[in-house]
Fold this sequence. Notes:
Blueprint: H1 2-17, H2 21-26, H3 28-42, H4 47-71, E1 73-79, E2 88-94
Amino acid sequence: MLEAALLTGIGVCWILSRMNLRRVAGYALFWxxxxxxxxxxxxxxxxxxxxTGMAAGVFVSAFLxxxxxxxxxxxxxLVRRDxxxxxxxxxxxxx
Length: 95
């Protein structure tokens, strides 16, 4: 059961690492809830499946927390410069 959760968590982390990890880590709470909920829904049907989905969500959450602490995180923010009339969305580092 935990082996399946670990493999599922590694697979999801590998897919997330194909994106920009700093930007994914900036919205870690959203990703934690979405991935844990989706995995729990996908493995619904047995108790072992539910535990596997929840444990994989915990592994992904730990991975995103480590990335956020080591590499930092970026979030979209509205930035308006003096020479621009309209504010634009830009990625800014979050501390």
